[in-house]
Amino acid sequence: MSSIMKATTDNGLLLPVPDQDGAPFWEFAARGELRVQVCGACGRLRFPPRPCCPHCQSFDSAWRAMSGRGRIWSYVLPHPPLLPGYAAQAPYNAVIVELAEDPGIRLVGNVVAAPAAALNSVDTSRLRIGAAVRACFHEIPEGVTVPRWLLERP
Amino acid sequence: MASLKDATAIVGTGQTAFAKRLDDPEKTLACRAILAALDDAGIEPSEVDAFASYTMEETDEVEVAKSIGAGDVTFFSKVGYGGGGSCATVAHLAAAISTGQATVGVAWRSRKRGSGKRPWTDVHAQLPTPAQWTRPFGLLRPADEIGMLTRRYMHEYGVTRDHLFNVALACRNRANQNPAAMMYERPLTREMYMTSRWISEPLCLFDNCLETDGALACVVVSADRARDCRRRPVYVHSVAQALPTQHHGMVNYWNDDPLCGPAWTAARQLWKTADITPDDIDVAQIYDAFTPLIPLSLEGYGFCARGEGGAFTEGGALEIGGRLPLNTSGGGLSEAYVHGFNLITEGVKQLRGTSTAQVPDAATCLVTAGEGVPTSALLLRS
Known about the structure:
The structure holds two protein chains of two kinds.
Chain A (H helix, E strand, L loop, with lengths): L22 H8 L4 E5 L5 E2 L14 E5 L3 E10 L5 H4 L6 E6 L2 E8 L22 E8 L5 E7 L3
Antiparallel strand pairs in A: 1-2, 1-3, 4-5, 4-7, 5-6, 7-8
Chain B lengths: L7 E8 L10 H16 L8 E5 L6 H8 L6 E5 L6 H13 L5 E9 L18 H4 L7 H16 L3 H15 L14 H6 L2 E4 L1 E2 L8 E10 H4 L7 E9 L19 H11 L10 E3 L7 H8 L8 H4 L18 H4 L6 H12 L11 E5 L6 E7 L1
Parallel strand pairs in B: 2-3, 2-4, 9-10
Antiparallel strand pairs in B: 1-7, 1-8, 4-7, 5-6, 8-11, 10-11
Helix pairs in contact in B: 1-2, 9-10
């Protein structure tokens, strides 16, 4: 994860800058696993990760593997002005996916045609709230892996 | 229990010109606005003993105090979360003055957002913890973050682009009456709105606030002192700050109900400590960095039921003579975007009867701060 000291990829996309709470998420992602923090005492999932459980105040936690299935909760199509790396692919989609395991766990991401495809690789007319998606992983050249989303019915 | 109700009043307001580019630096603009506000109040700068501003304000109280010639200062505070702090600056001064910690308070905001850099272009400062969960995926700007909530809002409740246009139009129409507004001579039509470029679909150019250089300030004193000031006092009737349970800032995607924002929390506190209800409000200055914040706030502050904010805007409801005249200086969308401080000063002007788009006999005004972030609000009365 040393490459995270860089702010952007060579083509100008922002790299995630994990904090201590979030670091495990990115480490699991690098292994192709989508995991979400779960309370070790009451068993409730929580996202974004944080030091203790807001429901039972336990500091005991683990990271539970998710199925990677979910549905689009909402999406936007950003247009310029944007950072150059994003402007080059605009308009692209940014989506929120609610996970099948718990619709209250929502991840921001991009729907793409294939794991390594561009942010604008899916025709925006294919996007709709409620559409089923599944996670894939893309290792960008800088050594960081980001989760991305594929339409179940492209 | 001690109460802030009507214990303090805003007795002076000041502002600089508003423009895409002003030559003066932010510190100079701050001093000009503050000195104008003190002159408006008829209070000497040497009497100022309290300051409040935003954490994003780059001129600190040390610089301001020594520049304007303030006396010994015994209270100073800064409020966080960008535009969410606007009304809280006045609230903090009201609390300090009504509890004897100070006697003459100045709140201000000076910002060169028109000619300066856009905060979201900084690739190194991903300061808010949620940035790792959003920015790498191209959710870069506040417009993208609020656009995400807007599409969900439209999906769940049938809010339309025409509803958002109603908001943009009401603000523009008021700006067209206000010579100080950046959009004074720039009318807006539905065709212009519907054919404008996207910024972050579903939000178009006219759903976004302006980019402005400018500064504003106001002066707060006790109700007793206010009666001796130059202008008619505008009383701080009720105040609230709001950080709702499980709130996550502008990317509020992770609680049970992301469309129920900080406005709801602020409203509960505001109305609980007030003698009036939403039905009693004559005019409202509601934070409008983006048009959808208006229908969402109308719901949160109790002017209509959940999901009815879009429909509320129909039939000219937000225009002068409508059910709830809105942002009568033009607001952030069409007068100036200075983190909402112009909404406070316009509220004061309405209750003095000196607005350029005066609501006849306005006696009560709701002023709100940035919605979608930890926020604040004021009820003002004449």
